[in-house]
Amino acid sequence: MSGSWISSRRAFVAGLLAAVAAPSVSAKAAGGEQILLGVSGPLTGPNAQYGAQWKKGFDLALDEINGKGGVKGRPLQYQFEDSQADPRQTVAIAQKFVSDPKIVVELGDFSSTASMAASSIYQRAGLVQFGFTNSHPNFTKGGDYIWSSSVSQADETPRLAKYTTELGFKKLAVLYLNTDWGRTSQTLFSNAAKSFGAEVVAAEGYQPDEKDFRSTLVRVRDANPDVIVLISYYADGALIARQIRSVGLKTPIVANGSVYSPKFIELAGDAANGVYTETNFFPGEPRPEVQNFVTKFRARYNEDPDTFNAVAYDTIVLMAQVFDQFGTDRTAIRDGLAKIKDVPSVIFGKATFDPETRRVAGARAVYLVVKDGKFAPWDGVKPTVN
Amino acid sequence: MNSFIDYTVNGLVIGNVYALLAVGLALIFGVANLINFAHGSVYTIGAYVGWAAITFLHTPLAVTILIVALACGALGAAIERVALRPLQGRARIAPLLATIGLSFVLDQLVQLIASPNPRALPVDLPDWRISIGGGSVGPMDILIAGVGLSSAALLYGFLRFTKLGYAVRATAQDRDAARQMGVNVDGVNSAVFAIASALGGVSGLLVGMYYNHIDPAMSFQATLKGVVAVVIGGVGNVPGAIVGSLLLGLTESYGIALFGTTYRNLFAFALLILFLVVLPNGLFGGRRAVEAEPMTGTFIAPSRALRVPPSVVAALAVGAFALPFALPAPYMLQVLTNSWLAGLLALSLTLVAGAAGQMSFGHAGLLAIGGYASALLATDYGVTPLVSVPVAGVVTSLLGTALVFPAFRLRGHYIAIATLAIGEIVSLVILNWESFTHGAMGVTGIPPLSALSYAVTSARAVYWLTLAALVAFALLQARLSSSHIGRTLRALRDDEIAARSHGVNVTRYKALAFGFAGFGAGVSGAISAHLFSYLNNQTFDSQLSLLAVTMAILGGMGNILGAVVGAVALVGLPEAFRFAAEYRILIYGVVLLALVRFRPQGLLGTV
């Protein structure tokens, strides 16, 4: 576990005695006045694992930057406020951050429900809300202080559709997570797939806490598809993949990039083999940004990073560069995000924002297939389609 | 036709999984007359104990099952001894609330210890499958069915033919009589909790293996589905629980076949409501399955309310209004704004639960109706918030009352279950009625509150507005409580039969209470919608409903000032304890447990 976790525990004890709020902060290096980033994200509640993943990515990037003396001699630090991804709490956190002059930029929150509830407060106060996992198409429409480096679904899903059709599939059955993210992806995917000449023969939305998919798979089977496309996160994607195989369906599976996690293979077991996916982040990719990140991550945490670690890491690296070039004034940060060019990024290769949409285009894409319980680059072999 | 067989088989397979849970719940209900909301937590703990045994001790399946059964049996006995036995003789809802508090505590402990990330739980069973129709059944399905059926059969035999079984049934029928006949009632209860929890733990293990997936958040859904199955089967009836589970599984499966996957839970809860309305004792429950209680399912601990002089209340209100001048920090004002909005919710709940005796576990559903009404009016129909917010209050009042209407004739735990289900149904309808509610995408770009051309956006303005709404509702509610209507509502709460025989039209008064309460909750939801500018079906979730219940109890049921105090304490104070973020839900749970145990009348006392 990271140092910040321990410090928050100590603060818990100290706080009980003193009853003084002491937010969890991390990283101590470099002299000078610190630059403080506010993070609003889930540390408890149903999405708590994602907050934990962020922390690992943040801490790694902070160590790297502060180890080199910080930004112009000033160390970076973040203040992580637990929102449980609950909109009632993100608005309070937003008020806390905007009225604290030490906070120069806000990162998060995790879900669209939680993040967009707070957008208007950040926008009115003129503090950049930087959502790096917010794919809701309307997220950045909250105003000119609302930015996102989350890979836009409009960017990502057509690529998945392209990969699916390149694999030779024509009749697609789509299973999607019935949230704003899954719904958006499903619509974009279906439209793109049609433009590539494929046909969507079934589309089934499911609830995030769903565990049983057997009856859904009967519906899918009756539509007679030649591939099943999963628009899922890794945990639910793994559940579905397993059940597809255990009910005896041989239909190939294509899954979108968010299943890319070592956990997917752990949870899906043998059923993961042969799953095609496409990701922005693959530790085996030889690009220096990726290799640098992966090596350091493995050395520190003794495990393989996943996409959530990577986007969190990227975000800190990006912010450090913005501070370095444009300073740490709140307005300067907003203007800087529009001007900054080609920031080295694990996800994008080189990240540049479109000042109109306040998003980054051109995420990297690596075609993958699971072989012998491991993600491997796609070898170009097309499956036989019946 | 082929597919029909597949849907049937799949329905039975998932019903089989529900049955494992339902048997334990039914057993506890039969003896302790209690819906054990902590059963799902025991199930989760069973899965994690099994995971630990397999990972660290490399135990074979049979040994793992034994370890899990022993560990969870001991946990069950401990739950009974520590949390429930001290509550004997209290209102029936007290132990139910204690199990809710316990489930918060246990789930959070699992999450702290095991991390929230899901884990794999592999099983070393042979890999063969029997095909039926177009699908197949594997060894795990058969193992689950075997454990479910054989445990039900064993329990049945145990209850019918053994001495301890006699004692259990005697205790279930009449605790006092059993005690007079020399039955060790506490021992019986303890044994029942141990057996049911052992079974619950084993089911968590088996289901975890079945899906190769365990996570700390799996308990709530499990409890919910188990409770639905138990109600369908007839509470307290073990074989009935199995039939109920299978029926639930089949209904879900056919629902998916007919309308698609997103409708699954809607079918499950609609089936529950149907049973509650048409056949409240379930398929196999006797006519006396649930004892008639003079206090219809409320948590009214008779007490003298703490008298706070009106001058002090007025001074507090004036102080609250003046606060932004002394303390201009927007963060503090936002936290208090949240407290005022929660206060409106707690006021609404304390009216229906405390004054009218209708404990509602789905109150967040009212917020959702109000929020969506105002948001859709403002965005899709261009109505100004000045009009849309009060209209949303009226809509919530009417729609909320209409939705709860079928539950009016229910009593005791059934009201709690019905309102819980209605809250879930509201959320599921919002998710599925895409053409009207925008479905999973939610409503974006909800305009901020405004009056004529003045936009209410600053933290201070919003603070005053919400505080004014809260004070207005509190005054209205105080007026209502002290009028003949309030007196009639309390009469109906204390003894519905007596009230009826005095010529009180029970349904009309309950509707009146829900109508008034719905308006307040609806306005709270509507204001929240305009503050957040974005809403979706998860904004007001079932966790919020349970939080509302805790707020009302903390303040003292029916106590108006108490509801506000409860809201400030549970919404405002956690902000002060942000450093303890990871422990927050744990703290809620402990607060609830401690209140139920030591101060059931709440901080300010029941009215």
What does it look like?
Chain A has 386 residues and is α/β, with parallel strands linked by helices. Chain A folds into two domains: 219 residues, Response regulator (Rossmann fold); 138 residues, Rossmann fold. In chain A, helix 6 links the parallel strand 7 and strand 8. Chain B folds into two domains: 199 residues, no CATH class; 226 residues, no CATH class. Helices cover 71% and strands 2% of the residues of chain B. In chain B, strand 1 and strand 2 form a beta hairpin. In chain B, helix 3 crosses helix 8 and helix 5 packs antiparallel against helix 8. Chain B is globular and about 70 Å long. Chain B starts with a helix and ends in a 9-residue tail after the last helix.
Which labels suit this protein?
heterodimer; A: alpha/beta; Rossmann fold; 2 domains; 12 helices; disordered N terminus; B: 607 residues; mainly alpha; 2% strand
Structural class of chain A: alpha/beta
Number of domains of chain B: 2
Q: What is the assembly state of the chains in this entry?
A: heterodimer
Low-confidence spans of chain B: 289-298
Which homologous superfamily in CATH is the superfamily of the largest domain in chain A?
Response regulator
Could you tell me the radius of gyration of chain A in angstroms?
21 Å
Strand content of chain A: 15-25%
Report low-confidence residues of chain A grouped into runs of 5 or more. Answer: 1-29
Lateral strand order in the biggest sheet of chain A:
8-7-9-10-11-16-17
Q: What is the CATH C-level name of the largest domain in chain A?
A: Alpha Beta
Please give the alpha-carbon distance between the first and last residues of chain B. Answer: 60 Å
CATH topology of the largest domain in chain A: Rossmann fold
Helix content of chain A: 40-55%
Average of the residue pLDDT scores of chain A: 87
What is the C-alpha radius of gyration of chain B, as a whole number of Å? 25 Å
How many angstroms separate the termini of chain A? 49 Å
